[in-house]
Amino acid sequence: MKLSKSRPITLDNIKTMLSGAGFEEENDFSFLGVWEGLINKYKRENRVGTADNYSWSLNSFRKIIGEVNGFKIDKNTIKLWDEGMRNGIMLNGKLEGKISDATRGMYLRTCRVVWNECIKRGYLPEESYPFSNKDNDLVSIPRGKKRQQSYLTIEEMTQLYHVFTEKRYPETWTKEYTERAHDSLGLFLTQYLCNGFNLADAGRLKFNRTYFAEGGRAFEFLRKKTSETSNGMSVVIVPIIKPLQVILDEIGAKPAKDAYVFPQIFRGIEDETIRRKLTVQENSNIKDRVIRICKEVLGWEKKPSGTWARHSFATNLKHLGVEELYISESMGHSLGNNITAGYQDMYPLETRFEYNSKLLNLEEEKPDIDVDSMTPEQMKEMLKKVLGQK
């Protein structure tokens, strides 16, 4: 009775209704409607970046393929779209739709999610699945390029840290640009020292309960990218090692309960759409300024970006022999079904300090002290310093 009021009574529609799929929105009952439904879902969840990605891929599909009625879609349709993204199509005498392989892969992956959603709802049969990187008769999704060279070594990161602490910038730069470059370099180094987190996480980082409970020795946050998934096991703990504290003192806000650590990123704006744009712009600014510092201050030809900071964290610790479970957990990677691990303090804070302190090579020079010639007062003062007493 419910189906007869809105849809044709067919075996497929009956099967879909009995499987529990709903008909809340008119346009849901089509392949492109499911695609649009996912976009709206991500928008409601404030997953702005994901929604944009799905919108761009849908626009590409419609530009090359056009509209698709219902679920009349198969591997040949996807192949035609894939070919159009590879080589472009002629529209009004102009070549349109051609994109890079990286973007093509990203768009095909969103389409794959839509296809799987349609299978789950009973709209498409599993045997019609059009994607495979092994079957040449199906559509192969290009893999992202490997990033073996997209990182900076510990020594290189240490040199950048010295540039920051010494404020060693060209005298030809204007005062305003030097200040912006200094702030950008600090944020880049912070991304590296804060377990390779991205700028969206940096913008949301707060002086929360954990920070004060640990005496200002650690940050705790929920990684935005994985907090949107269902397992919820993406809590990241960052030990505030000495060089990170130096950067915080320079470009961070003063600690206050639930205050943002880097308010300059979002500028007090709470709207997620605007935050997304600010993050993209700030990522671009950091990349441009750090590249210029590398070239004009250190004489490098390398062009690091924010993703290099994350890759550098993982690569450098791996090269040092740090266990991969620590690296993965520290970066907020999903723990899958390992529920026990999610609730355990897998690594004590002191262990985190031990590992993260290896991210920079800052061996302190030992002072040349003649203990035998020291007065009792001098020895007393030295002992206080060793014990950390005032």
UniProtKB/TrEMBL annotation:
GO terms for molecular function: DNA binding. Gene3D superfamilies: 1.10.150.130, Intergrase catalytic core. It holds the Pfam family Phage_int_SAM_5. Keywords: DNA recombination, DNA-binding. GO terms for biological process: DNA integration; DNA recombination. The keyword Hydrolase does not apply. InterPro entries: DNA_brk_join_enz, Integrase-like_cat_sf, Integrase_recombinase_N, SAM-like_dom, Tyrosine_recombinase_XerCD. Residues 30-131 form the Phage integrase SAM-like domain. This is Site-specific integrase.
